[in-house]
Amino acid sequence: MNIGIIGAGNIGATLAAKLSACGHSVRLANSRGPETIAEVARKAGATAVTREEAVKGADAVILSTPFTAHQGLAELLKIVPASVPVIDTSNYYPFRDDAIPALAQGKPESVWASEQAGRPLIKAWNAVLAATLADKGMPVGVTERIAIPVAGDDETAKRIAMALVSDTGFDAVDAGSLAESWRQQPGTPAYCTELSAAALKKALLAADKERAPVNREALLKEFMSASEPLTHEHIVARNRAVTT
Fold first, then answer.
1. Dihedral, CA atoms, 69, 70, 72, 77, nearest 10 degrees?
2. Residue 117 and residue 62: Cα distance in Å, rounded?
3. CA 30, CA 152: separation in Å to the nearest integer?
4. Which residue range(s) make up the domain with 191?
5. Is position 43 within any domain?
6. What is the 3-state secondary structure (H, E, C) of the chain?
7. What domain count does the chain have?
8. Cβ distance 40 to 17 under 8 Å?
9. Contact 153, 120 (CB under 8 A)
């Protein structure tokens, strides 16, 4: 597939490398121009391009940008045919993204992001830590394979996203509609807890919409106030302990 990725941070660059390794043709872009990510793209086996070049002719587009950047992507995405899946990896954190009243009132993050972007999105790779994505992918069929939730309203687009998730080394679990995507937002049992497919399905059902923001803030406060760097294992363990 021809895949355009907007955003060359930890998640975007890792996705570029993993999808390139699977044989996909990946074009990587950011908001500052291809010359600023030439080395990142080279190491990932991708091609550094402008944002317009990334989405033109793409079979799938992945948005790996800061959450509030959706507001500036609507014009760009107008040139992407409606049949092309646009997959979003972002998450909302009020301390970083400022307070958004609609989200405080319960609107799912991905629904709001879709409204800003001007088209339906598929939510994937948001509920996994960057280190998990980079280091813990496994071949299909391995018992210990970690699962990632995928939510969206277009079933064809969702299937494409789920196939790409599998290509990156993880089992894809259908997490339902975009309206139900709050079940994989920060503070839920499905978020950054490294579960098997069976366990992830249970975690999605166990999510508590009112409790999730409380969990998110409690975990954030704990992580940011730590006196020494936290290990990956500690972060996953605390996510599991606080959200379940």
1. 140
2. 13
3. 24
4. 65-243
5. no
6. CEEEEECCCHHHHHHHHHHHHCCCEEEEECCCCHHHCHHHHHHHCCEECCHHHHHCCCCEEEECCCHHHHHHCHHHHCCCCCCCCEEECCCCCHHHHCCCHHHHCCCCHHHHHHHHHCCCCEECCCCCCHHHHHHCCCCCCCCCCCEEEEECCCHHHHHHHHHHHHHCCCEEEECCCHHHHHHHCCCCCCCCCCCCHHHHHHHHHHCCCCHHHHHHHHHHHHHHCCCCCCCHHHHHHHHHHHHC
7. 1
8. no
9. yes
Cβ distance 139 to 98 under 8 Å? no
Tokens of 184: 């994989």
State mean pLDDT over 117-143. Answer: 96
Q: Is 40 in contact with 48 (CB distance < 8 Å)?
A: yes
Residue 206 forms part of a structural domain? yes
Let me know if residue 73 belongs to a domain.
yes
pLDDT of 26 > 90? The answer is yes
Residue-wise pLDDT for 51-110, tens only, equals 999 999 999 999 999 999 998 999 999 999 999 999 999 999 999 998 999 999 999 999
- The pair phi, psi for residue 114, each rounded to 5°, is -65, -40
CATH number of residue 155's parent domain = 3.40.50.720
First to last CA, the chain: 38
Domain annotation covers residue 80: yes
Tokens of 117: 């972007």
Tell me the whole-structure pTM to 2 decimals.
0.96
Structure tokens at 43: 């190491």
86: exposed, middle or buried (C-beta count within 10 Å: 0-12, 13-18, 19+)? Answer: buried
